[in-house]
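Question:
When you can, review this sequence-structure pair and walk me through the tokens.
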Amino acid sequence: MKLSYNTVEELAQIAESSGKRISDIVLEEQSQSMELPKKQIYETMKKSFQVMRESVKNGMNPDLRSSSGLSGGAAYKMKRAVDQGRNHFGYLFGTAMSMALAVAEYNSCMGQIVAAPTAGSCGVLPAALISVMEDKNIPEEDVVMSLFTASAVGMVIAKNASISGAEGGCQAEVGSASAMAACALTELLGGDPNMVCTSCAIALKNILGLVCDPVAGLVEVPCVKRNAMGVANAFVACELACAGIHSTIPTEEVIQSMKRIGQQLPTSLKETAEGGLAATPTGCRLCKEIFG
């Protein structure tokens, strides 16, 4: 088996024709190309998932604060609201948001995370999978396998567009993470390979054009809260795809559009902290207070 990782549709077609999940064919291909047993590759992915779970746990610390003072404590507040029944849109949604905040804040505090696909978007995939896993009592093995699907989708996006905020804006980071999470969730919850492909398109379409404008050049404001938005976007894309709703624009055309939009974005909106929220009076004031 040889996968080119050129298109998400290729992954879906091969999986559909073989009667397997995308994660199964990706694991098989990786085993062959790396000349390693599938068990060994699976265990490596499992370790990454364990790091994700630890980052969720550690990021919930109420005393967690970044050295800049811009982030920390939000995940705990969100989790407390959920635990006390004070959030408005259900336990699963509130838990997912708190987990996304936790991982992103833990990253800001120099904790160990999994860049999935980047450090700036590290909270989306863990939050989506772990919250659903716990809510629906899904076996860990199935969740770890879904990470192979997410990884393959991330490879396609990186190959054909970008996963770098400096190159494509935040659509390339949180957008790609949302797409990866949506695809993993869709497979995990019983969607077929074509639904997985559709969920990728929907997630990316929902976030096209999102700029990268970190205040003071730090991956904290607005990055942390965009991780919470990213997991919400993944839920939306998964729900729509699993309901049988199709994307009018094919997945690969959406990915190409993301690339073009990234190229068209001015430099000030691509991680330089020269535009967007970073250039607001408050953003400039915070930068001066932090760096002098």
Notes: The chain has a mean pLDDT of 98. The longest helix spans residues 38-58. The radius of gyration is 18 Å. The CA atoms of residues 65 and 71 lie 6 Å apart.
